[in-house]
Amino acid sequence: MTSPLDTTPSNLPSSTIHSINYLREMALVKYGAVLFLHLLCLVTTASAEVPAIIVFGDSTVDAGNNNYIPTIARSNFEPYGRDFDGKKPTGRFSNGRITSDFIAEAFKIKPSIPAYLDTGYEISDFATGVTFASAGTGYDNATSDVLSVIPLWKELEYYKEYQEKLRSYLGPSSANQVLTEALYMISMGTNDFLENYYTLPDRRSQFTVTKYEDFLIGIAEKFVRDLYGLGARKISFGGLPPMGCLPLERTTNVMEQNQCVDSYNDVALEFNAKLKGMVGRLSSELPGINLVFSNPYYIMMHILRKSASYGFESVSVACCATGLFEMGYACQRENPFTCLDANKYVFWDAFHPTEKTSRIVADYVMRTVLARFL
């Protein structure tokens, strides 16, 4: 049955449609607890528990894979990780845990998901959850080339290697069951636009931004088909946040008094709509697949617009260093401007959310989308 919240007249101006979509999503934010309980009562499609969380993507879900490759896109030094268990930097671009960690905890699997290349872990640790993500990567191979990080196709190769290790560890039958019942999370795309398309000339000379969106959607669709062919059935596809509101973009938006870059946010909305359409199309085309779209855009925008209600004091400036443009090696422990309490900040560095923000986003995604897998 279709809810009135799911329908929007198609003959309205795009700005009005965006506003309606925002209000719809905020209704879900406000009434999420009720919706969550409702879903638990109604959903019967996922009778088996999720035994593992398997993650692909960029810095939003990288737990330290970049520590083991020659790249400057790293965060394995203080003050990164200062609020993580043991107060140690792990390679997560955060003061603590990231969204995928909180989701693994919500599924009662483990408090954090380890990086596949981390030599401190064994296949026994990866059997219940692993991330192949690489900070700085994207759907486009050209994006991963910018900072010499792991491209998406290589993440998939690591996953194939992981499958064989898991089969050796658990036995073929048990391993295949884990691989089928696992929840696969995919989170990337921001770098394709901000690090690649809008920064370097090559892709802009080849594509309009609309055509580039379509180009990325084609890669995303192939990736889903490849995962499906390898046995994945429960897949969550993450959308883009309001990337025009990242501190780095606001800092450089001098002509608009450091407000959010609306054109970037519009691209995020357009791209998310295409991702959602792809998810719907493949859901009806691939037998047995349980594919969902996890959209962080509206909850992030709600946090930014209603920051005080979440206990935040700063939305445009990050916690680390001056909070205007620093991330990675520019975010140093010795910087005297780094904030003392990251919980007052939406962003940890100029590109990445704080642990508190990640927890809020994870809770929202769990209540509104991933509850079907519980």
Which secondary structure elements does this structure contain, and how are they paired or packed?
Layout: H1 14-30, H2 32-42, E1 53-57, H3 99-106, H4 123-126, E2 129-131, H5 141-146, H6 152-170, H7 172-181, E3 183-187, H8 190-197, H9 201-206, H10 209-229, E4 234-238, H11 247-252, H12 262-285, E5 290-294, H13 297-305, H14 355-368
Parallel strand pairs: 1-2, 1-3, 3-4, 4-5
Protein name: GDSL esterase/lipase
InterPro entries: GDSL, GDSL_lipolytic_enzyme, SGNH_hydro_sf, SGNH_plant_lipase-like
Organism: Eucalyptus globulus
Describe the structure.
It is a single chain. By secondary structure, the chain is α/β, with parallel strands linked by helices. It is built from 14 helices and five strands. It has helices at residues 14-30, 32-42, 99-106, 123-126, 141-146, 152-170, 172-181, 190-197, 201-206, 209-229, 247-252, 262-285, 297-305, 355-368, and strands at 53-57, 129-131, 183-187, 234-238, 290-294. The protein has a five-stranded parallel sheet, covered by helices on one side. The two termini are 21 Å apart.
Provide a compact summary of the structure:
This protein is of the alpha/beta class and 374 residues long.
Low-confidence sequence ranges: 1-16, 31-48
Please give the number of β-strands.
Answer: 5
Please list the strands of the largest sheet in the order they lie side by side: 2-1-3-4-5
Overall residue-averaged pLDDT value: 90
The proportion of strand residues reads 5-15%
Determine the fraction of residues in helical runs and give it as a percent range: 40-55%
Q: Given the C-alpha coordinates, what overall shape results?
A: globular
Give the helix tally: 14
Rg calculated over all Cα atoms: 20 Å
Organism: Eucalyptus globulus
InterPro entries: GDSL, GDSL_lipolytic_enzyme, SGNH_hydro_sf, SGNH_plant_lipase-like
Family: Belongs to the 'GDSL' lipolytic enzyme family.
Protein name: GDSL esterase/lipase
